[in-house]
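Rotation project, supervised by the postdoc (A.L.). Task for the rotation student: set up a whole-complex structure prediction and record inputs and outputs verbatim in this book. Inputs entered:
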Amino acid sequence: MFLGPALAFFGFFTVYPLLSSFYYAFHTIGMAGGKLTATYVGLANFKALLDDPIFFLAVRNSLIWGVVGPVSEMVTAAGLAFIVYYRVPLYRFYRVAWFTPILVSGVIIGIVFRWIFNYDWGLVNVSLRAIGLGQLALNWLGRADTPLGVVILVHFWATFGFTFVLLLAGLSAIPGELEEAAQIDGASRWQVIRHVLLPLLRPTIVTALILSFIGKMNAFNVVWVLTNGGPLHFSETVATYVQKRAFNWNTLDLGYPSAIAVVWFGVVVIGIGLISRRLRSRIEY
Amino acid sequence: MDAPPAAVQRPGWLGRARSRLPLVLLTAGLLVFTALVIIPFVWMILLSVRSTGEILNNPYGWPQPIRWQNYVRLFFDPGIRFYRYYYNSLFVTFFALCLNALLATLAGYGFGRPRYHFRFRGWLFALLLFGLLLPPQIMYIPQFTMMARYHLLNSRWSLVLLYAALGLPVSTYLMATYFSQLPSEMEDAARIDGCSEFRMFWQIMLPLARPALATVLLVNSLSFWNELLLSVTMVTNPELRTLPAAMFNFIGENAADYSMGATSLVASMLPLLILYLVLSERFIEGMTAGALKG
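Outputs recorded:
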């Protein structure tokens, strides 16, 4: 009785579109004046996918990001979480400050960092020139090799605070007696972290890694605004490529982008499975 | 979910360190790091009170003079009229929050209270949580055709409906966990007094769940206010754009007007930033609660 409205709503606006995507993936979908025309094409969309170099570039970029992003975030966030956990001075201030970027819309982040990496007057290049490293002042967003790195860095800035707060909450939930007991047995702080806190924190780490991974795979706003996948698709991700094929290139076919999304959905699910499988199995000892 | 990050009795760095030097170095390092995190905000705010000429010629001094009138121009200049987008964003966020909270509270109650056990409950709940993992790309093309079919494209209501659906898994999860922690004695007492199911929900359980409801509203207001993908897809009429879409287009069309651009960024970020500075603990707790245990 209480569930009815929510489940109906969820079914209509989430489950039904999800299943429709699978249906679309096997069709050519045209839109004409609000009317949908679907022509069955079998596996043609998926075959086309295999011959699509931009798709493979987007997959490569997304996968690099999916590995580098969560790992770098986890290492930084874990280090910071342990430092703050031992109550360094100003720890409350750090916590609030590092979390702040989470609030900012991807659009704002994208625009601001487009300016920060501006060749002429951007913060990065001006700082580099000021300290005499002018030869390192690159056209960050206009080259082949740097845009993806910039995207990863900017997204790191935007979301590491979330991972950090998750880990800190996980640490605070560990009962203090365990740590005290280890200390009484003469364990150093490093040993306590290594052999007591880290193993107990593992479930939180897995959760945080998965969330971070999903975040990178779904990230659209920041890339869309910061580089728009450019230049020449060098920072294209699957999310931006789907959007381009569906609504920006006037290809008038929603079937092909649906096929991309379906394949990608499979990849993301496998990725999540890998993270949780690999790390869960190591919990038992 | 506890507010203070570290329990009181745990040893601080000061407790053990033989000399203070490591602590000083550590603090210096952390402060530099924090400065790097915060600098983009400061820079953005300084840009927003400069003129474009100043940004291009001398972007790093103190703004001379501080041009607060940028904000007035942003909102009321007949060519920009930013207040329209504010209104659209407020409209969409407000109604989506209401709809979402209504659905999620009911469902959370149904899922959370042990009295309502039924056969596929676990399955349904898992299905709902599965929604957390779904990339938006796998849903938004059919959502687009759906909205086209019902003639809701270029209407704020399309976004209201889709945002409410988008936030449903998190909200329901938060409400369900909270409801499941409430004691059942009060329910029993009320039932003996002949209270109807719906009155019990509305007058007894819902008031108790107010903290969870506040968390739900806070967490969702963040994601609804900042959403871009659905917004640019469903709404192409410039009059109806929400803030993120409007900023994106404004920057696209006026690429050289850095001053107004920066002003628009700060102006659209400000409501959330103020809310955060006042309620930072609640924000952090709420977003953590939604993610952990999940």
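Student's summary: Chain A has a mean pLDDT of 80.
Supervisor addendum: The radius of gyration of chain A is 23 Å.
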